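tool_call: predict_structure(chain=1)
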Amino acid sequence: MSETLAKYIPEYAVKPVFDLIVANQVHLKIVNERQTRHGDYRRGPNGKHEITVNASLNKYRFMITLIHEIAHLVAFEKFGRNIKPHGNEWKYTFQRLMVPFIRPEIFPSQILPLLARHFKNPSASSDTDTTLSLALKQFDADNDKNYVFEIPFGSVFRIKNGKVFKKLAVRTKRFECIEISSGKTYLFNPNAEVELMS
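tool_result:
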């Protein structure tokens, strides 16, 4: 298992992450990419703790996702099953599990201050922290993506589900775009991945 982990997370994190997996009796499945999530945790019908993480993630995002999901398991075990999935108990647990990994041997120096800031109050998804999300995306294998914040106003673009939009305006932190087929207005996070159409 630790040899497999070494393919997906930074070298200096392999042993401590492997120890966390063993200590919490996690059955880890590395799966093909799902559009809607990076990973998930559930307790199987046999009582086993099952965590899945997308194989397509870069090693830094994979690691954050794996610790995120282990934090669900640990928080449920410690505080009971009635807590909110991303409530204070989970945030506290995620911080406690993640902080020992926020080190220069594990993460690139340009990401460390962003991680430190994010983990003062971690959100349900690192994607909602635009600065951290964009910094992590620099390490993706497929780095020729466009983001909604960088395309010109008036541009027409497609998202993963095939819907086509036109970028109209900026509203505080998000971008107002109109769906071409329905005329409905949507707000996009700056780091939303889009395919620019000519």
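agent: The first helix runs from residue 2 to 6. Proceeding to next step.
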